[in-house]
Amino acid sequence: MFLINCPYCGERDQQEFKAGGEAHIERPKQPTELSDDEWAEYLFMRKNIKGVQFERWNHAHGCRKWFNMARDTSNDEIKAIYKMGEKPPTQ
Amino acid sequence: MTLNLRVKSSEFIDETNRISFKFDGKTYYGFKGDTLASALIANNVHLVGRSFKYHRPRGIMTSGSEEPNAIVQVNPNSNITEPNARATEIEIYEGLEASSQNCWPSVNFDIGGINNFLAPLFPAGFYYKTFMWPKSFWEKYEFFIRHSAGLGKSPNTRDPDIYDHRNIHCDVLVVGAGISGILAAKNAAKNNFKTLLLDEKNELGGSTIFEANEDNKINHNSASEWLKKEINELKNIENLEIKTRTSVAAYHQYNYLLARENLTDHLVKKDKKNKIRQRLLKIRAKKVILATGALERPLIFNNNDRPGIMLSSAIKKYSNFYGVACGTKNIFFTNNDSAYESALSLHNKGIKVEAIIDIRENSDTKIIKKINDAGIKIYWAHTIVDTRGYKRLSGVSIMKLSNDGTSVTGNKISISCDCLGIAGGWTPAVHLYTQSGSKLTFDEERKIFFPKTDTKEQISVGSCGGDFELDEIITNLNYKLKNFLNINKTDFEGISLENDHETSKRNIWLLPSDKTIGKTKPFVDYQNDATAKDIKLALREGFRSIEHVKRYTTTGMGTDQGKLGNMHALGIIADTAGVKMGELGTTTFRPPYTPLTFGTIVGRNVGEFFDTFRRTPMNDWHIKNKAEFENVGQWKRSWYYPKEDETMHQAVQRESKAARQSAGILDASTLGKIDIQGSDASEFLNRVYTNAWSKLAIGKCRYGLMLNEDGMVYDDGVTTRLGENHYIMTTTTGGAANVLGKLEDYLQTEWPELDVYLTSVTDHFATASLCGPNSKKILNKIIPDLDLSDDNFPHMSFKEVLIDKIKCRIMRISFTGELSYEINAPASYGEAIWQKCIEAGKEFNITPYGTETMHLLRAEKGFIIVGQDTDGTMTPIDLQMDWIVSKKKYDFIGKRSLYRSDTMKEDRKQLVGLLTEDPNIVLEEGAQIVSELNQKPVEMLGHVTSSYFSPNLNKSIALAVVKDGKNMMGRKLFVPMENKNISVTVANTVFYDEKNERLNA
């Protein structure tokens, strides 16, 4: 059970949050211009790596805000938490 | 046989408080402070159970939670009986009843014991190998296996006890109140850390408190005496909370731990009453200090499981702590010095120790000298090759070990005894450490897995950290504690320590016998009856991964999770396969450390508190009017309103007719309602719904279909434009929260530039849906001032009105195909408005109807229910709802996916109507649809999604998804059922009033 530092509310128990999958996948601005393969890439393809992964999380039972998290999937260490629209940490 | 084995009064046992209890129907006596195990041993009862597979007689092995054998049924004659309790953990109280498990008819005469003699037929993987053929026989085998396997019986009525949960936040959590844990907790609390100290036992002090070892001295006192003073001081320390009888079950990420606090199990019945039995502590600690100690290892040799064979440390605890002798003629068998301490404890209490058998060549520590001085014979470099006695140990045979330890030589010596203490060294209790995600290191010399690395948030101290000797423990504790808590000094820094140091070591995972291994029974996992032989067989059969060997042989898979024998299993695998133990690794330690009752896990969430439920403002009226309810999400919705002895079918048929012939009323308060405001609200709706929204006039309503980005239907509902920048969206009852979440997601992450604000107002409004040809007349009675003409108030429009000064929103929308009005009132006036409708509707025989009738009426009209007629694989095109998908809009959620090659395929499963050849047969929802009856294997074309008997059409109707259904109009298909094939015809989805004439009737 993680302890997550919501950027708007502070540290809260994981059960207040909802995981929202991989972060930094932008919805294409012009979907109609894309081929089936390109659209499928956006729609279906997600990374599942061992190591630091960038994820979207939502403080569903709190402020309802979405934010990003860099998490090491091998040991569940939360490396960084940053707001939507912010760049992922480089390290 | 009554033999009093109480040796000497113990300070931990209250001999003035005599307690009677029953075991296997017989009455025994013990004292306050005894466990069931110590009290039974005092009564010379060692045989307490039968083993799992071979039904071999088994006795008490340990004195703690690692017990594999003494697993008993508590209150066996009650229907709230509890199985799989460890006799070594049950504190006795007046009236306690317990019995053996896994034996029939009795522990003394167990029919299953024949398995022991058939043992050659039961090798590892026996069940996998034997019952796989012929395949069709599995069900017969299973019946037999289920009856002869399984430990204990489960209670068969509702648990009457009260359980509780509590959240705890602390600075420092110390797990284990042995010497290390006590010193750690004391120093943490003294340095202003809010500290919680937990121990699974009912007393503090771990094994130091009763060790009575004169050679272990702290500040020139015996370590036991010194520790007692430290414990006495604890009560004066602020910031320190101590909980005994509290076992930590799980250690999750970020220092989140679950512990079970046992509050009443040790009390007599009348004192248990109305009290919380067990409490689950959910602890979030800033720092965790693990001081969980070490578990003594057994030794693995032929027939090492007879009643009377126990861990050496357990024998010491029974004698020193409980004042009970485990036997009258004792032998110890060891590979280290700790058995000598136990032997000396017995000897000093006047209990006879016959001999000590040591696999080592020699040792010259002080304790050995004391044993020699006591005249106890030591057999160096010897091993036990066999034991005797069926229901109780009667003797052992020993032989000299070869130099390499793989065989035995010389003459067999026979020694008689009734108790054998085995000491195979110590295993740090690292279960919680590994559960937390930390990795173990193997120490080749000491043959232990231990936590080598500490973190800023967690340390392991004492023997669970790999420190076994007193000076080592205290010195390292001092050092670690100062770093961990960032303090300059501990209050035990610089105390004087004296203790013996072990010098000689020898470890043999599997001790040899004079017989070949095939003819021996060296048990590694007592609870699951797995022997070293089974492990070797698994390796011969090609298993290599430790996780696979574990599952194949079931080693370590009992309720004790192999706390005793796992290290030996690893050692035997490593030796046999010729790999290093450090490289082999361990199996995964999983929570809970000791079993938890379901009651504790569930806590207060039982019965009506199992889940939260929501009731509408009209709920009291529904109850008064005898509604049956159904659960929709968390809502309790009126399902139907049976009159007198009406069946559900009769009630629904009556309600459905009434709604079409005169007037019906439905409580639609549960529909999700989202208030949408902002200058970009119209643009936002354009992007989330498939149809166009920009041109919707203020005061008008529109039905919308919402897709997932993959093009599949996600939700639907009517949205009304209340103002220029103000809409109210309705969602399905079950989808409300998810829809809001999804919309917020897009707003916050994809389209943050849109000026839109969403607010859930589901609970703010109560909705009464008036339906039927007379609904206009009824509404006119309620609001005479309102012009209800089609010109002023047409279908799909909205009015804001006052009903008795209450501001209400009325939408003329319909889910039944009849003329309908949805009256939305502030929730607190919901019941009043509902009552008013009922009163006004009396002359038209207004009929309240529930969700079932609603479903039937909409099915007559072919209106879908998202989640019933769709399942996340249906596009609007599949639903034959092409009309709702805007071709003009550049983009909306899911649009691009509608043009993927797969979603554009002609022969996808599509929603169609089905009519049965016999109009009286109602199809089963979920039934499969085929076109050929004699084809094998037959192709499933689809399934029935909605099916009813329509009273308005006087025939059965159904909706179904069928492959290429659009092109099958009029085709004859079949719905094969268990004992008949039903002929059906594919039809239009709209069965009733195809031209929508009734909306304006």
3D structure, described in words:
- The complex is a heterodimer of chains A (91) and B (1001).
- Chain A is mainly β.
- In chain A, 9% of the residues lie in helices and 37% in strands.
- Chain A has one domain: Folate-binding fold.
- In chain A, the strands form 2 sheets. Chain A has a 4-stranded antiparallel sheet, with no helix packed on it. In chain A, strands 1-2 form a two-stranded antiparallel ribbon.
- In chain A, strand 1 (3-6) and strand 2 form a beta hairpin.
- Chain B has 1001 residues and is of the alpha+beta class.
- Among the domains of chain B are: 164-294 and 428-498, FAD/NAD(P)-binding domain, CATH 3.50.50.60; 666-857, Probable tRNA modification gtpase trme, domain 1 (Gyrase A, domain 2, 2-Layer Sandwich), CATH 3.30.1360.120; 864-882 and 891-1000, Aminomethyltransferase beta-barrel domains (Elongation Factor Tu (Ef-tu), domain 3).
- Chain B has 24 helices and 50 strands.
- The radius of gyration of chain B is 38 Å and the shape is elongated.
- The relative contact order of chain B is 0.07.
- The model of chain B has no long low-confidence stretch (mean pLDDT 93).
